[in-house]
C-alpha cells in the first residue's frame, strides 16, 4: 500500500480510520437499511397518498371514523401501560443486577436474557394456557378461595398488557443495568462520607444518573409495543384491537392497501415526532446510556 493510498484510509497517527474508510465500512449496513426499511416504507407512504389517485381521503378515514380513532388511542394507551409496568418491574431487577457480583450476578443475568432465546409466539402461547378458564391462574385463585368460579382472563386487555410486559421487560432491564453499572462507586462513597443515608444516596445520586437508561429503555419498549402483533392477536379480543392487527386485517382480508398504508403513515408520523422529542430532551449518547 502506497503512502498516498494509506493516507486516504488512516489518520496521520496511523491508529484511526479516516472518514472515507469509515464510510466504506458502513456502506453495506446503510444499503441493507435502505433496501429492507426505507424503500418499503416509502412505497407504503406513496400508496397512502397516490392510490387510486392523489388524495388525502385515506388519512381522513383514520381521523373521521371513531372506530379507527379508538384503535389508535387504545394502541397508545396499551404501549404506555406496558412501558410503565416495565419501568416499575425492571428497575429493581436492573439495580439488583448492578449491585451483585460473581455467580449470583451471572444467574440473574441468565434469567433476564433467557426469555430472549425463545420466540415471542412461544411465550405468548404459554400465557394463553395460563389465562384459560381451567388454566393455572384460575385454578390457583379458586384453590386459595379468592374466587368460587373461573374468571375471564383470556381475550382481555389485561392479558395483552401482562404478556407484552413479560416479552418486552428485558429491553427495559438491560439499558438501565448498563447505565447503573457505569455510575462510579466513588459517587456513592462520597455521598456516604458526606452523611447521606442509603435512601438519600439512591434518590439524589443513583436515580438521577440512571434516568438516561430509563429513557432509553422506555423508548425501546414503547416503540416496540406500538407495533406489536402476535400477542394482541392471540390474547386480545376484537374489542382490544391494536393498530398492527388492524393493518393486517386491511391487507389480508379487506385488501385495502391504501388505507392500511395510511395507518402505517399515521403511526410513522407519531414515532418520528416521539423520536424528535427524545432527541431534543436527551443527547443521543446519553439516550444510549453513556455517562458524561
List the helices and strands and how they pair.
Layout: H1 3-9, H2 19-50, H3 57-64, H4 66-99, H5 102-113, H6 120-130, H7 136-143, H8 157-181, H9 185-193, H10 198-209, H11 211-226, H12 230-235, H13 243-252, H14 257-281, H15 284-287
Describe the structure in your own words.
The chain has one domain: MetI-like fold, CATH 1.10.3720. The protein is mostly helical. The model is unreliable at 287-292 (pLDDT under 50). It is 75% helix and 0% strand. It has helices at residues 3-9, 19-50, 57-64, 66-99, 102-113, 120-130, 136-143, 157-181, 185-193, 198-209, 211-226, 230-235, 243-252, 257-281, 284-287.
Q: Give the integer mean of the pLDDT values.
A: 83
**Total beta strand runs:** 0
Radius of gyration: 24 Å
Fraction of residues in H or I helices? over 70%
Give me the secondary-structure category: mainly alpha
Inertia-based shape: globular
Whole-number count of domains:
1
Main location: membrane
Pfam family, one: BPD_transp_1
Keywords: Cell membrane, Membrane, Transmembrane, Transmembrane helix, Transport
Family: Belongs to the binding-protein-dependent transport system permease family. CysTW subfamily.
Properties at a glance:
single chain; mainly alpha; MetI-like fold; about 75% helix; about 0% strand; disordered C terminus; transmembrane helix; transport; MetI-like_sf
State the gist of this model.
With 292 residues, the chain is an all-alpha fold. The protein has 15 helices and no strands. The chain has one domain: MetI-like fold, CATH 1.10.3720.10.
Amino acid at each position: 500500500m502506497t503512502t498516498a493510498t494509506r493516507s486516504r484510509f488512516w489518520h496521520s497517527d496511523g491508529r484511526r480510520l479516516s472518514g472515507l474508510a469509515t464510510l466504506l465500512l458502513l456502506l453495506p449496513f446503510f444499503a441493507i437499511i435502505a433496501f429492507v426499511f426505507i424503500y418499503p416504507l416509502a412505497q407504503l407512504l406513496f400508496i397512502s397518498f397516490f392510490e387510486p389517485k392523489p388524495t388525502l381521503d385515506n388519512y381522513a378515514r383514520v381521523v373521521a371514523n371513531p372506530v379507527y380513532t379508538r384503535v389508535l388511542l387504545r394502541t397508545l394507551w396499551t404501549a404506555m401501560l406496558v412501558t410503565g409496568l416495565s419501568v416499575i418491574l425492571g428497575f429493581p431487577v436492573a439495580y439488583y443486577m448492578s449491585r451483585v457480583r460473581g455467580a449470583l450476578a451471572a444467574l440473574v443475568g441468565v434469567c433476564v436474557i433467557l426469555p430472549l432465546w425463545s420466540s415471542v409466539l412461544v411465550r405468548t402461547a404459554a400465557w394463553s394456557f395460563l389465562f384459560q378458564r381451567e388454566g393455572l391462574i384460575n385454578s390457583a385463585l379458586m384453590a386459595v378461595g379468592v374466587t368460587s368460579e373461573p374468571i375471564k382472563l383470556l381475550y382481555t386487555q389485561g392479558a395483552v398488557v401482562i404478556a407484552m410486559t413479560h416479552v418486552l421487560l428485558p429491553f427495559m432491564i438491560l439499558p438501565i443495568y448498563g447505565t447503573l453499572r457505569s455510575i462510579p462507586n466513588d459517587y456513592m462513597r462520597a455521598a456516604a462520607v458526606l452523611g447521606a443515608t442509603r435512601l438519600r444516596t439512591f434518590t439524589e445520586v443513583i436515580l438521577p444518573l440512571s434516568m438516561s437508561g430509563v429513557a432509553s429503555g422506555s423508548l425501546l419498549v414503547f416503540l416496540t409495543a406500538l407495533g406489536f402483533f402476535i400477542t394482541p392477536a392471540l390474547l386480545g379480543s376484537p374489542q382490544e384491537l391494536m393498530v398492527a392487527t388492524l393493518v393486517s386485517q386491511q391487507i389480508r382480508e379487506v385488501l385495502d392497501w391504501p388505507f392500511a398504508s395510511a395507518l402505517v403513515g399515521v403511526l410513522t408520523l407519531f414515532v418520528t415526532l416521539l423520536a424528535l422529542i427524545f432527541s431534543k430532551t436527551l443527547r443521543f449518547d446519553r439516550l444510549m446510556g453513556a455517562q458524561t
